[in-house]
Amino acid sequence: MRRAARAARLEFDVFGRKVAFDARAGGVDWALDPLSGLRADADSAGFDPKGAWALGRLDHLVALAQGVWLSPLDEVRDRLCEALVAQVIDFTRENPPGQGVQWLSPMEVALRSMNLALAFLMTRHRPEWQRAPSACLSLVAALWAGGRFVEANLESDTAVPNNHLVACLTGLFHLGVLFAELPDAARWRARAASGLCREIEAQTLGDGFGFEGSTGYHRLSTELFTLALFAADAGGVDLGRAFQERLRARFWATASLVDASGHVPQIGDNDSGRALPLTSRHSLDHGYLLPLGAALFGDATLRRTGFDDLDEVLFLMGPAGLRRFEALAETMTHPSAVLPQAGIAILRAGPVTCALSAGSNGQNGIGGHGHNDKLAIELRCHGARLVADPGSPGYTADPDERTRYRSTAAHATLEIDGEEQNPIPTHRPFALPDISRARLTRVDLGPIRDVVEAVHVGYRRLAGAPIHRRQIVLDRQRHTLAIADRVLGSGRHRLILRFPSSAPVREVLALSKETRERLVRGGLDLERFADSAFEFGLPDEPTNAVAVLVLPRGGEVTTSPFAIAEGYGERLTGTMIECAFERTLPCELWTVFLF
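User: That's the sequence. What structure does it adopt?
Assistant: Structure tokens below.
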């Protein structure tokens, strides 16, 4: 109800920024980018169309419709539905078909069409629509124009079709099913159904993970395919058993990725995209998908202890979905998991979760949403991101920033001679050709300790042909995470280890007696490690150390401020820990975290 009330007041949250409009002063400025404060018609660098598109997706209309459904008060329902109708009139008037920033992206038109259709269908019985027949005509005209635009501009001619095409097909499918009276509906329905069945096969790896190499886009495309399945059920269209099995595998992949809080590691691009705008969620919160998958497929392996956020289940499936979910027995999960085709290993011990990224750049080698994060880790403890992926603060508004946040130097991995693992084509912001060929080479998950190893050959092009191998050992008895970086090859090279963190960090200039004893008890040679360390605290308890980082001996250690983006457009205060070495190859560097 709070979301609905804010939408009625024209108050929005766009990528973490609060933005408000005054209905008396013209209402929503649909050409505004709230990230930069610039408008689409301004001839100025820094305009980000995704900011304007976030407003133009109209997911706040769904929030208004939800408020109409949920409020027990007649006057509140009346006010919210009046606001919904007024915003439909305003948007369709200010954004005629094919004109302006809101018609630049077929994907955005498709997502907007789904939200418009859903909000209308939820409230079509209301008198506010009956009193505004012109609004009904404008809405139907916008949906028809949107469907024709999407069909004429299907994003299928890119190098490798991706989530954009899935969004287009899902939008067309919804229009074809829900507005069957439209002249083109039958064709849209048939064409989209065929395309969705093809794309779920092409865009889903054998382990269920999305083929784009990004946890954020895995969620978006999973939501889109899920919405397609619900639309198919509503329209009596059979998408086939293969579609359902592929979709179920996507939910299983999500179950492997989430930690106890429902968050996933941030791997690759993350634009905070959603196709199920039913409630506000953190950009890295994917845990709600588990109950939805459990209820949708009647799958007890997806009903995990502690995952009982049922908003999507109740909205999409109603009381029957709730009963179906509650009939399933809860299951526990192995503390660690691996997605072999994705090249992702997730190691867990109590409050500790470590993710290792050792997969391809995605999209069959194109790497549109990939980063130079090969053999990089993310490390959480008690919910704090001790080692954090840098995320995606932006895409096209600042090309230099996009390059920096995709770079090797922005991730918790090893850089050699200041070079990139994969050279970044700066003139192509959505390409990262994969020469690193990262892969997992060993996965040994046991009750006491987990061992994973991975390798990439991205630096083999340099003098001496360096090859980077990383081994990670998580020991549950000794509460340690040991990282061994082995660099094969020959010659003298500059090696830099980096650990970006969004948690409070404090340098300790001398190892405590307890830390030394723990290193020895863990079978780790003290001669390998520096005499100083870093302590990590929790955001609400910065002086209470929950982990200690001990770096390899002989490095030049520096720290610097570094912004972390846990969602698109965000820049949270963080710290980059850097340790540089001059070494002759082959060599070995050991790092350890103590919990």
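The longest strand covers residues 480-501.
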